[in-house]
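Shipment paperwork, digital attachment
Item: protein structure file
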Amino acid sequence: MNKRPILRLKKPDHKVTPPANLRAGFSYLNKFPAIKKVLPLQVGVRDILLKNRPKNVSGRTVRRTLAGHCNRIEYVKAVAAGGDRYDLQGQPVGTVSPEHQAGAIEDAAKRGESA
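Attachment content:
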């Protein structure tokens, strides 16, 4: 029986930095208090971010960085806890729906985290 070699990846010896476009997206998102505090964001926040984005940040970059933020376990746990949703300035604008809360609890469980 032929055994194929196992591919082993080495960890890089240097710190990996994201591309410039993602760094611009991160700095754009991090200027908002609700993002910094990892609060559950209002429904439709992506459209607001896209509408008000700076010219040096593409729509694709906004979508990618927002998706990365919303997939962080800290954010998933914040949604799983329920309670209020917040606008970008950190003001309450609604509540987390039971469906979103249940989905976040399930997502946290799949990651081996307790919500």
